[in-house]
Specification:
By secondary structure, the protein is mostly helical. It has 4 helices and no strands. It has one domain. It starts with 9 loop residues before the first helix and ends with a helix.
Length: 95
């Protein structure tokens, strides 16, 4: 079996229009069928700081935001990309 993930996959699953942490928090509670609890959502927001220089798309190496997508789009795309793409791949490889 061969398994992998590409960089910046979160940019295809992140939701546009989030301008604050509360919006991301609420999205995480209903994101796909992940069944994320409020304490887990709070922990994710704590671990994934709002620092665009370290968020997808990774080829943009400065703190550029994309106003048309919302000031916290890069943060949301990073979190949801890891949930949708990276976490499952890692779990599969563990098994």
């Amino acid at each position: 079996m061969l398994d992998g993930a590409n960089s910046d996959e979160g940019s295809s699953v992140g939701v546009s229009g989030f301008d604050n942490e509360t919006a991301i928090f609420n999205n995480l509670l209903s994101y796909r069928s992940c069944q994320i609890t409020p304490p887990t959502a709070r922990k994710l927001l704590e671990l994934y700081l709002n620092d665009p220089a370290y968020e997808v798309p990774y080829y943009v190496t400065n703190a550029t935001i994309f106003p048309s997508k919302g000031p916290q789009w890069r943060r949301d795309a990073t979190i949801t990309g890891d949930l949708a793409m990276v976490a499952g791949r890692r779990k599969f490889c563990e098994l």
